[in-house]
Design brief:
71 residues, mainly alpha
C-alpha cells in the first residue's frame, strides 16, 4: 500500500523500526483497514526517529495528531 512520506528532523534512529512495528500491531488490534494501518505505523515510526533513545513514549493520540498536522 502506498503511503506518503513523513518528513521529520531525525534525532536517533534506534528504536524507530520497533516503533513502526508497534504501529502495525496497534493498528491490527484496533481493527484499522490495511491502508490506514500502514499510514498509522509509518507515523509512529517517524515519531520514533524524532526522539533520542530507544524507548520514546508515543501514544495513539501523539500519532493521530502528528498525522493530522503532517497531512
Amino acid at each position: 500500500f502506498p503511503s506518503h512520506d513523513n518528513e521529520v528532523e531525525v534525532q536517533d534512529i534506534i528504536g524507530s523500526g520497533d516503533s513502526l512495528l508497534e504501529g502495525i500491531l496497534t493498528g491490527r488490534l484496533e481493527g484499522k483497514a490495511p491502508e490506514e494501518n500502514i499510514r498509522f505505523a509509518c507515523g509512529m515510526g517517524s515519531l520514533g526517529a524524532m526522539y533520542r533513545g530507544a524507548t520514546p513514549v508515543i501514544t495513539t493520540d501523539n500519532v493521530n495528531t502528528f498525522l493530522r498536522v503532517c497531512g
